[in-house]
Amino acid sequence: MGSIAVCPGSFDPVTLGHLDIITRGSKVFDKVIVSVLHNRNKQPLFTIEERIELLKQTTKEIPNVEVDHFNGLLIDYVKKKKANAIIKGLRAVSDFEYELQMASINRKLDEDVETFFMMTNNNYSYLSSSIVKELAKYHASVNDLVPEIVEEALRKKYAFSN
Ligand code: ADP
Description:
Layout: E1 4-9, H1 16-28, E2 31-37, H2 48-59, E3 65-70, H3 74-80, E4 85-90, H4 93-109, E5 114-119, H5 129-137, H6 148-158
Parallel strand pairs: 1-2, 1-4, 2-3, 4-5
The structure holds adenosine-5'-diphosphate (ADP).
């Protein structure tokens, strides 16, 4: 059996920081399933369909990356996809506590699924989807933070606001 990793997140929208983690992960695992979480607690800017489409467009050059979405518990989804690993990116110490808690609970739920953490590329350590949205909302440049089609999509979203 090949190694299959799930890379979960909100991806609202996908940034160069996410793509860096996805690309590096795709070199280590046979297949990476990037999966958009239906997060009921957050009010997203982009719909699930829009987020999936942007991810598909921006990962289309990487043959072993697949884009999907899920609802409910991550560990149930991972098992359903017959994956054996979860990939997460770590940006700062502030990510650590929450991620440790998630990795621990997921191991308790299924000890055969391992969580792998990748340190952020230094260029993107400050980068999050929230920061990108905040900048785009006020029409500041997000040029070197997201791929061009995401920049375009943000421009359209915020074109009639403010
Ligand atoms: P965000 O916090 O940007 O809303 P998501 O929930 O979409 O992020 O994150 C999905 C995954 O990508 C998480 O594991 C997160 O830690 C990781 N990630 C997000 N941005 C970066 C970045 N700039 N560098 C490394 N990892 C990142």
